[in-house]
Amino acid sequence: MTGFSATVLTLYPEMFPGPLGSALAGKALEKGIWGLETVQIRDFATDRHRSVDDTPAGGGPGMVLRADVVGRALDSIGADDRPRLLMSPRGRPLTQGFVRDLAAGPGLVALCGRFEGVDERVIEGRELIEVSVGDYVLSGGEVAAMIVLDAVVRLLDGVMGQRESGCEESFETGLLEYPHYTRPQVWEERRIPEVLTSGDHKAIARWRHAQSEAITRDRRPDLWRAWEAAHATGGTRE
Ligand code: SAH
User: Is the CB of 93 under 6 A from ligand 1?
Assistant: First the structure.
């Protein structure tokens, strides 16, 4: 299969595919739309105890993944043109745009940190792209790598049922998504907004857009400012 190819370097390969083996991503994996390979970093330790980490130079708490061991693990994959990501809270924030770029490529290599992180020299020496999944600290890069892969895989051709279900979502338009409703018409005395059952498609589109704007303005002033700037028509705007 020549689909999107993912290689994950980890001390816990048994965590994979994990949630990526179910539902949309799992079906796509079965169909060969994408492929997943794991590399056990510990296989590249050379000492008797197969150690992969050591104490931080300069002192301080915790342990650091060794550059030599991680370097050998990375080199075992061989050279190809897939981006090499290091999951890291210091990294470039994962955004839908970044996810789209990754999904358009041949695949990715994801190195999962543990302990205090990875020796800086291997980040520089192997030109790893540090990627963060948010401003909080996880105990390891595995769940972060799963987040990246989950977001990427659903965009691959043939994964999502309806092609269009990818384009109206939060972030794709620069706005958060409008609210959804389905039957029953009344639930605990709450009705589906009337406009949605009116059959007036233009009115529905207007309502949804207004909701998207209001929700974005209210919840995410950062996204709202960016959206406003991108949609400023050059007219009179305060
Ligand atoms: N000492 C580090 C945190 C290490 S957490 C610091 O303060 O920056 C251990 C590993 O978990 C990291 O090496 C990284 O691979 C992963 N990780 C933790 N939080 C993450 C996040 N927000 N995004 C991506 N990876 C994360």
Answer: no
